[in-house]
Design a protein that fits this description.
Layout lengths: L3 E4 L2 E4 L5 E5 L5 H9 L4 H9 L1 E6 L6 H10 L3 H4 L5 E4 L4 E4 L11 H7 L4 E5 L2 H7 L6 E4 L8 H4 L4 H5 L10 H16 L4 E5 L3 H5 L5 H19 L3 E5 L5 E2 L9 E3 H9 L5 E3 L16 E5 L6 H9 L4 E6 H8 L9 E5 L4 E3 L15 E2 L7 E6 L17 H8 L2
Parallel strand pairs: 3-9, 3-10, 7-8, 7-9, 12-17
Antiparallel strand pairs: 1-2, 4-19, 5-6, 10-19, 11-18, 13-14, 14-16, 15-16
Helix pairs in contact: 1-11, 9-11
Length: 407
């Protein structure tokens, strides 16, 4: 076994203590600040004082799949290829979910650690991420969502419900994330993996603003499980895949720019194709509305003129050509449209008004996807000697800090 391994042009030391990297879905830093300030997270308060607390940037689009894959590959989407939860496959002319490992273009650190002889465990809330995170990884890998369907052959473990002692949680609940933490603690107690990756869901963050009872209850729960992992001697690095913001006008209604309707009027009905990479099978809590879209234009369109016209639309933060977006946001050029549109902090983009069902929203819309949701926590329960605190930190530096500095 080598002391170091190299993955995607980054070098990592092997873990000396059990190492847990946690991705808290939708964790705008203010959630932690509010919970700590009001006494809801005693473990984190102690960790902020005795460990290391940084604010980092996630990748744009600030969605789940691109950022989780960046964290486990240590690289941006231009390297690993996962640039959304959803994309337009130009080869087949169809819109598809990016949850199949065939879309992944780079190896994960998790698989490399397992190949080097380390025991690795992954627990994710939704099953859409499991196959990507566990691609070519020898070890334990399962989701809360399908925790009753695990097999030794497929997941490296059986009887997860018996291990955790909790029922299969609803996808639309805080319980889905609690199951991730509870499973992480039980796995550390029984199997003591060398490296563990825990990834939650942002159901709570979509519904509850920082400092509210619903949010504080969630972070109190999380704090208790992290304290247990800390007590077992784990190095813990905590980050998020993206932040979260209210996306409403002053009347409390969703502030939406319907881009397909806009393009139908601007260049002709049905000529442009608007793709919303936030789309996944679980849209009740956000109605598939986020702050990032990619647009495919018909051949012969004046892209720059169209880009400039959309950029002047009230509520848009930035509108870029394919090449500009690929450079600024480190995205694969062949998986984004001719135009990339990012809306402002309080605004979301949709396709057509007739295609979004917002009847499931029982609270003012909160969502993500844009530049305004880039700030995320990056917290380690150890001091990090030798670390340049003036450098730009990304959420995908989590394993770098946990393995190269915290050990």
């Amino acid at each position: 076994m080598t002391d170091k391994l190299s993955v995607n042009d980054r070098t990592y030391r092997q873990p000396q203590a059990p190492t847990v990297v946690v991705c808290v879905d939708g964790c705008e830093p203010d959630y932690l600040a509010q919970a700590v300030a009001t006494g809801h997270m005693p473990w984190l308060k102690k960790t902020l004082a005795e460990g290391s607390a940084l604010v980092a940037e996630c990748v744009v689009p600030s969605f789940t799949n691109p950022n989780n894959l960046s964290i486990v590959t240590g690289a941006p989407p231009s390297v690993h290829g996962i640039c959304g939860n959803y994309l337009y496959d130009t080869a087949s002319g169809t819109e598809v979910m990016m949850n199949d490992p065939k879309w992944l273009r780079a190896p994960t650190l998790l698989a490399a650690l397992a190949d080097s002889g380390k025991s690795v465990a992954v627990v994710t809330a939704k099953d859409k991420l499991r196959r990507l995170l566990g691609h070519k990884m020898k070890g334990i890998c399962f989701s809360s969502e399908k925790s009753d369907q695990v097999t030794m052959e497929e997941n490296g473990i059986d009887d997860v419900l018996g291990l955790v002692g909790l029922p299969v949680p609803s996808v639309y609940s805080a319980d889905l994330s609690e199951f991730v933490f509870a499973a992480g603690v039980k796995l550390m107690e029984k199997h003591r993996p060398d490296v563990m990756y825990l990834s939650t869901t942002d159901y709570v963050q979509h519904k509850h603003a920082p400092g509210t009872d619903g949010a504080n209850s969630f972070y109190t729960m999380m704090d208790g499980y992290l304290a247990q992992l800390d007590a077992m001697g784990c190095v813990i690095a905590l980050t998020a895949d993206h932040g979260m913001n209210a996306k409403v006008a002053m009347d409390g209604q969703p502030d939406v720019i319907y881009l397909q309707d806009w393009f139908d009027q601007a260049i002709g009905t049905g000529k442009a194709r608007v793709i919303l990479p936030i789309t996944d099978p679980y849209v009740v809590h956000h109605g598939a509305l986020g702050s990032f879209a990619t647009v495919y234009l018909p051949e012969g369109t004046d892209v720059e003129a169209t880009r400039a016209r959309l950029a002047a639309q009230k509520g848009m933060e930035t509108v870029l050509t394919r090449e500009q977006a690929a450079e600024r946001f480190e995205l694969p050029t062949d998986r984004i449209g001719d135009i990339v549109a990012v809306s402002e902090r309080f605004t979301v983009v949709g396709t057509s008004a007739s295609r979004h069902d917002l009847s499931g929203l029982d609270a003012p819309l909160r969502s993500h996807g844009g530049i305004s949701e880039q700030r995320v926590p990056l917290i380690v329960n150890r001091k990090l000697p030798g670390l340049d605190l003036n450098r730009r930190f990304r959420n995908f530096d989590a394993f770098d800090l946990a393995l190269n500095y915290a050990q």
